[in-house]
Amino acid sequence: MLTTARFAAVLVAAALSAPAAAFADTNISAAGSTALQPLVTAAAGEYQAKHPDTKISVTGGGSRTGLGLVASKAVDLGDSDILAQNQPNLIDHRVAVIGFAIVTNPDVGVKNLSKKQIQDIFSGSAKNWKDVGGKDEQITVINRPASSGTRAVFMKTLMGGANLDQATLTEDATGTVVQKVKQTAGSVSYAAFSGTRNQSGITEVSIDGAAPTDANIQSGKYPYWSYEHVYTNGQPSKQASDFIGFLKNNKGLLQKTGYIPVGDMKVTENDR
Amino acid sequence: MADAAMVNAPDVKQDLSRSRARGRRLVDAVATLLLWSAASIVVGLLLLFVAYLFYKGASVVDWHFLTGNPTAAQAGGGIGPFIYNSFYILLLTLAFTIPIAVSAGMYLQEYASRGRFRQIVQFSAESLATVPSIVMGLFGLLVFVEAFHWHFTALGGALTLTLLNLPAMMRVTQESLAGVPATYREASMALGGTKWQTIVRAILPSAIGPLTTGVVLIAGRIFGETAALIFTAGASVSYGRSAYDPSVWHTAETLSVALYQTHREALVPDADRIGNGAALVLLVMVLLFNIVARVAGRRLSRRLTGKST
Amino acid sequence: MVGFRASRAHRDERIALAILMACSAIFVVAIALILGFLAINGTKLFFQDHVSPLAFLFGTTWDGFGGHYGALPFIVGSLVATGFAILVGGPLGVAIGVFFSELAPARIAAVFKPAIEVLVGIPSIVYGWLGLTLLVPALGAITHTNGDGLLAAGIVLSIMILPTVISLSEDALRVVPNALREGSASLGATRWETISRVLVPAASSGIAVAVILGIARAIGETLAIQLVLGNAPVLPKSLLSPASALTSEIIIDMGDAPDGSPFRHALFSMAFLLLLIAMALIILIRLALRKRT
């Protein structure tokens, strides 16, 4: 047992002296937006198949988490739906455009909502679907936490300064929101296309008559979308830069996972 | 009070005491029934949990699920790397916990009969034992992840779990040593052994049974720990062939963290299926640890006591 | 030859003792470091960001990115869920402890006790999973709500503290001298009277310790309740409305709070508060045990 103790001591000493060796250049870590996560993870899988020596780890956490982690150099890539504020070290790489949808449980039966109705629902002033043109059924709102970029873009593009009622169910990630909407009668939430496409059991709602489609986003008719950003702290390493390029230019993968290539946009964020 | 008023009516009093005796027996019977049902309810709950987890998970768990790699965003992923990480962190944690806690337990039980240092160590251990695992996780985050700049590593996770499990392991040691008959000590000392020789040659071998039981039960606890690992060992694995990383520096998402994370992110369309499978695997592991603890403990103590007498 | 051997044994003895003492000292250093690190990081909100402790303890608005750090919703959530667990799980656990110590025939105990030990071993994340997939839908169906909230969390915690309360209260009862049982029986007391008027009072300090350790386990539990609380960072309107607790809010927000921000400091203040509660419980246990001696 003394040998074990000695072994442990050696291990601790080694740990204290040699952590640098742990992070070879072929490690790329990414964290942040759960709206961008499906693209990054899928791309990581394809990229590693081509470059077997590169290790890529992908974590969610939310956009602000990603920005925080890349700012403190805890990860190499910070995935975000929102722009970084006052962070001169962070370099923005726009990799795609993502659309978001207002989603409801299919039992609700509402197909279209005006911006005003959306504001009433999420500020808590409309409590029943009949208040917004639906049947007599209680509305169950599901929110994302404050760190969510999906929520930030929702506030910016649709809520128009109205306050969010926070006394609601809150789910951590896009996938969980979609699951919960499926399971909960009368529920409504907001989620990225990458999480709602290829899903049955939820209804995507039109906003002011514009259906949540790629075409409507490209032409500027549908308001709820944003650029997806990958941030690096300073210039990226050669491998990281290579991987970002792979993310951005892989049109087939972008479309398969529910994103729009940046080059396909006919409008910019300022046109909204 | 009532008796005083009835003192002059002996037959009424007798009646009353008879009916009261009946009442007391009734209360006793009802209480007995309630105690039996309380115990049965809890055992029933356990059976319900086990049955439910098997019902939901049995169709998920197969060889591919147990050994396959997790997928990024498609259905059909496995949990192989998570199981690997769970055992990796378990063994690393035990490698730290056992020597430290057994030594401390030996010191408290065999050397420090009274005295200030013993009291301080005892009180520290009790305090350490009540630190919530999420708080321990944040401590690990501050120290191993941030102050040491290790990032999320298996080593940081294991050291955090070591802090969490030292007190229990020390207690197990103390109890195991306390269970060794005094005659063993006396016999060894009488043969001229020093205290240390006595501990190593006579006491430890005869305490090995309960000690092993304790280690295996604590191993079960380590295997299932989650909250302390999320911010220390991390909640991600790299995909592909690098998923089984032998380095202590790798980010190590364990099976229990994966169960949490799979639900939390629900990135794969079959998150529920994977959750049900992972929950069942965790349950079966815990059952196995319990059975091994019992069997191994009993065997070892039988064999070793058989030899040393 | 003998002298050489003896001196070597003597040297081994000294080395061994030094190592054993060093290992014991690790416990002291560890808890001191934990207290120190959390005290420093848990009070930055007050000393560095100049948020008043009262605004933290009694504020009801939690908006980490918007400058509001009121933790009352989580303090209330933790206390209500824990209180519920103690009110339900406490008496039930003590009752089962009594059952094992006074009633259970050996054959029944041989089946039931291992079952209880398995309950201890089930990881908290699995309890959370059971809560999420079994309890919440059931509660939702019965009450016509979502099922998430403090009631669900309280039920999960009640079950989770049972093994602790059961085994410790059983131990406390077992050390009550048999003379008390025999004396009470010879006075004509029924078994229940002996239990309720003699044994439980005699074991009261041990039972108190069992319940306090149950509280300690409940208040620190994180994932099992995060999965069933509904996670709304507001004062709960009822036991059936979405709520949050100190532990669950830490796990939700920790990854999001930027380094060095008041948001992050507020989370560490919550962790420090949890640690202080745990330490207070330890002191309570000491007091309960001192009363006995």
Question: What report would you give on this structure?
Answer:
The complex is a heterotrimer of chains A (about 270), B (about 300) and C (about 290). With about 270 residues, chain A is α/β, with parallel strands linked by helices. Helices cover about 35% and strands about 20% of the residues of chain A. Chain A has ten helices and ten strands. In chain A, strand 6, helix 5 and strand 7 (about 170) form a beta-alpha-beta unit. Mean pLDDT of chain A is about 85; it is low at about 1-25. With about 300 residues, chain B is mainly alpha-helical. Chain B is about 75% helix and about 0% strand. The model of chain B is unreliable at about 1-5 (pLDDT under 50). Chain C has about 290 residues and is an all-alpha fold. The longest helix of chain C is centred in the first third of the chain and has 46 residues, at about 1-45. In chain C, strands 1-2 form a two-stranded antiparallel ribbon. In chain C, helix 1 (about 1-45) packs across helix 12. Chain C has two domains: about 1-40; about 55-290, MetI-like fold (Orthogonal Bundle). Chain C has helices at about 1-45, 55-60, 70-105, 105-120, 125-145, 150-175, 180-185, 190-200, 205-220, 225-230, 245-255, 260-290, and strands at about 60-65, 70. Chain C is globular, with a radius of gyration of 24 Å. Chains in contact: A-B, A-C, B-C. At the B-C interface, helix 2, helix 4, helix 5, helix 6 and helix 7 of B face helix 1, helix 3, helix 4, helix 5 and helix 6 of C.
CATH class of the largest domain in chain C: Mainly Alpha
What's the pLDDT, averaged over the residues of chain B? 86
**What is the terminal-to-terminal distance of chain B?**
64 Å
Q: Please, what is the oligomeric state?
A: heterotrimer
Strand content of chain B: under 5%
List the helices and strands and how they pair.
The complex is a heterotrimer of chains A (272), B (309) and C (293).
Chain A: H1 2-17, E1 27-32, H2 37-50, E2 55-61, H3 63-71, E3 77-80, E4 90-104, E5 112-113, H4 115-123, E6 140-143, H5 149-159, E7 169-170, H6 174-183, E8 187-192, H7 193-196, E9 203-207, H8 214-219, E10 225-233, H9 238-249, H10 251-256
Parallel strand pairs in A: 1-2, 1-3, 5-9, 6-7, 6-8
Antiparallel strand pairs in A: 3-10, 4-8, 4-9, 4-10
Chain B: H1 2-6, H2 10-57, H3 63-67, H4 80-111, H5 116-130, H6 133-147, H7 154-178, H8 182-190, H9 195-224, H10 227-230, H11 255-265, H12 271-308
Helix pairs in contact in B: 2-12, 4-7, 4-9, 4-11, 5-7, 6-7, 7-9, 8-9, 9-12, 11-12
Chain C: H1 2-47, H2 53-58, E1 62-63, E2 68-69, H3 72-103, H4 106-121, H5 124-143, H6 150-174, H7 178-186, H8 191-202, H9 204-220, H10 223-229, H11 246-253, H12 262-292
Antiparallel strand pairs in C: 1-2
Helix pairs in contact in C: 1-12, 3-6, 3-9, 4-6, 5-6, 5-10, 6-9, 6-10, 7-8, 9-12, 10-11, 11-12
